[in-house]
Design goal:
The complex is a heterodimer.
Chain A (H helix, E strand, L loop, with lengths): L6 H8 L6 H7 L1 H23 L37 H37 L1 H15 L3 H12 L3 H27 L3 H8 L4 H37 L11 H8 L8 H27 L7
Helix pairs in contact in A: 2-11, 3-4, 3-11, 4-5, 4-7, 4-9, 4-11, 6-7, 7-9, 8-9, 9-10, 9-11, 10-11
Chain B lengths: L7 E12 L2 E13 L4 E5 L6 H8 L7 E6 L2 E2 L5 H7 L3 E4 L13 H13 L3 H14 L16 H14 L4 E5 L7 H17 L3 E6 L2 H7 L2 E6 L2 E7 H6 L4 H8 L41 H5 L5 E4 L2 E3 L7
Parallel strand pairs in B: 3-8, 3-9, 6-7, 7-8
Antiparallel strand pairs in B: 1-2, 1-4, 4-5, 9-10, 10-12, 11-12
Helix pairs in contact in B: 3-4, 3-5, 4-5, 5-6
The chains are: A mainly alpha, B alpha/beta.
């Protein structure tokens, strides 16, 4: 005769163990693969000087537009071939990872901190600050990003600081809106009221009660933004107003190779593939993180 | 300190919410006292403002007007810092145990928060105190490092009670603490609350729409209708000798096993009016089944004592 379970037994069966966030993440094979790819890209960006066979700007006059090694005419020392100036493509892609990842991380961190902070303050306190910020955001949203970035970069010439600011200029708005909206709904949640009721201060309520609940959407947004930033940087570099020409960047390389796409497909294709794989991996990792950050997934 | 002064005195408390251009009169002038150690039952239909009143009493929402005097201190006049220091002394138990625990915090963090805040408790000492509290409410301390979603509704409500106890409160406002639980669990939680009330000599305001639950736990009962207290008095006499026609209908609506069909258990007609459009005069008059006098429709009745400690707001009621 089966007996009804008591409260305690039910809990024993559903929650014998409480795996942490990483355990959940590691169980997601796609996320693990994506994480490894991202890690590989990061490692490459750091280790480029040791991994790359050549200086990325070194020109080989005897090896102009050489095809990759597996095509006829390719040479073993230039694995992915060379570009119109005889520079080694592999070396340039390895060095280019630094610009893409470095800029992406920097811009995302900057916009995430600024946008989330402002959004939480606006959502929690409301009032004139919220009203003023919302108007500002409306104005920014009506502003075409590329035109603005073009204007800044045209005014200052290609340099990294201006590029970071141009990319961050509108990027924080997404974080602001997500954070504000989530705080607005979490502010009156019973668990926040309860913490206030036991005497917790505003800082505790915002940072310890509300923030953990809005981190998952923020993380997901950060990875999506990371992908967008990488593409934006590549677009600006493609237009010739992004990264200074002395620094190898994937966007610039795609741009340089586009004229030769019919005769020397590899010059534009390999950096393009690098962009594709990095963005894809970052997005997949973001999705895995979103699941792992939800404690309801930790059963 | 004067021993006979009430722990809580609420005077003419009003909470209006603005809905468009109109005012939603959730709480519309409530005056009551709660003595130390007693349990006051607050009963009424859903939407009558009893939950809002509970939150106002715990200072979790600012009232539109009126005063809350807790242990001789006008808490609404306190600056934010001082109010924070008072907060642990008045604790709300929430109706929905699934919403009142932060899903991203472990039970240990949730229950330990008041101890960290107010007693600078930490490390091994904090562990021990939280374990004790959990044991007090019947939760296995070995489960303390789990997250709220790993517990059932009844267990979560116990955790909520443990958090309130960690504050060492004088007053507990229990807002429908069992309404969202299975009937079999309801009795357990009520028992837990009864035990703790005696053990820690707590003063309790017990909010419920269920007259039978309230009558079991309360010393005194206040009946609310549309934002006002219409009758208040000793539990026995409010149940057995209800003076207000609304209270009589509420009490009469409780099903009793074995009881014959009562002589005249009045039935209420229709839904309570919207608190956006409170009727003139006696706010109960559109649903009242008594023969109404003209003043019922014109003059708002005040609470008046018809028996010792038994007050009613009805023109027609007679002791």
């Amino acid at each position: 005769m089966p007996e009804a379970l008591t409260d305690d037994q039910i809990v024993e069966t559903t929650a014998a163990t409480t795996p942490g966030m990483f355990a959940v993440l590691l169980r997601n094979r796609v996320a693990v693969a994506a994480g490894l790819v991202v890690l590989a890209f990061v490692a490459v960006s750091v280790l480029a000087p040791w991994l790359a066979p050549f200086d990325p700007n070194l020109q080989h006059p005897d090896a102009i537009r050489l095809p990759p090694v597996w095509q006829s005419g390719g040479r073993a020392e230039f694995l992915l071939g060379t570009d119109a100036l005889g520079r080694d493509l592999l070396s340039r892609i390895l060095y280019g990872a630094k610009v893409s990842i470095g800029l992406g991380v920097m811009v995302v961190l900057l916009t995430m901190v600024v946008g989330t902070g402002l959004g939480m303050i606006a959502g929690y306190f409301g009032g004139w600050f919220d009203a003023a910020m919302s108007r500002l955001v409306d104005v920014l949203l009506a502003f075409p990003f590329l035109i603005f970035a073009l204007a800044i970069m045209a005014a200052t010439g290609p340099n990294l600081t201006a590029l970071v600011l141009a990319l961050a200029f509108k990027g924080w708005v997404d974080f602001y809106r997500v954070a504000r909206g989530d705080v607005l709904s979490a502010r009156h949640a019973d668990y926040v009221t309860a913490a206030r009721g036991v005497g917790a201060g505003t800082a505790h309520l915002l940072l310890r009660e509300i923030l953990p609940n809005i981190v998952p959407p923020i993380i997901v947004l950060a990875t999506l933004r990371m992908a967008t930033i990488i593409i934006s940087e590549a677009s600006l570099s493609f237009l010739g107003i992004g990264v200074p020409p002395s620094i190898p960047a994937w966007g610039t390389m795609v741009s340089d190779g586009r004229g030769d796409i019919a005769t020397a497909w590899w010059i534009a294709t390999f950096p393009g593939l690098a962009i594709l794989f990095l963005v894809l991996a970052v997005n997949l990792l973001g999705e895995g993180l979103r699941d792992a950050l939800d404690p309801r997934m930790r059963l | 300190m004067n021993e006979v002064s009430p722990l809580l005195r609420v005077t003419d408390l009003v909470k209006h919410y603005r809905v468009g251009r109109r005012a939603l009169r959730a709480v519309d002038g409530v005056t009551l006292e709660v003595a130390r150690g007693e349990t006051l039952g607050l009963v009424g239909e859903s939407g009558c403002g009893k939950s809002t009143l509970g939150r106002l009493i715990c200072c979790l929402e600012p009232p539109t007007s009126g005063s809350v005097v807790f242990d001789g201190v006008d808490v609404l006049a306190l600056p934010e810092r001082e109010l924070r220091r008072m907060r642990p002394r008045m604790q709300l138990i929430f109706q929905d145990p699934f919403a009142s625990l932060n899903p991203h915090k472990t039970v240990r963090q949730i229950v330990g928060l008041p101890l960290q805040l107010w007693e600078r408790s930490k490390g091994e000492e904090l562990r021990r105190r939280v374990d004790e509290l959990l044991e007090t409410v019947g939760i296995d301390p070995r489960q303390a490092d789990r997250f709220p979603h790993q517990f059932s509704g009844g267990q979560r409500q116990r955790i909520g009670i443990a958090r309130a106890l960690a504050c060492k409160p004088d007053l507990i406002v229990a807002d429908e603490p069992v309404a969202s639980l299975d009937v079999s669990i309801q009795a357990q939680i009520l028992q837990v609350m009864r035990d703790l009330r005696q053990r820690f000599s707590l003063t309790t305001i017990f909010i419920s729409h269920d007259v039978s639950v309230v009558s079991h736990v309360s010393d005194r009962i206040a009946v609310m209708y549309l934002g006002k207290v219409v009758e208040i008095g000793p539990a026995q006499s409010v149940i057995a000798r209800s003076l207000h026609p609304y209270s009589r209908a509420l009490v009469g609506a409780v099903p009793r096993v074995g009881a014959e069909e009562g002589p005249e258990a009045p039935r209420l007609k229709g839904e309570p009016p919207s608190p956006l459009a409170v009727p003139s005069g006696c706010r109960f008059h559109p649903r009242c089944y008594l023969n109404q006098a003209a003043e019922c429709r014109q003059v708002e009745p005040e609470l008046r004592a018809l028996a010792p400690g038994h007050l009613v707001a009805c023109h027609l009621a007679a002791g």
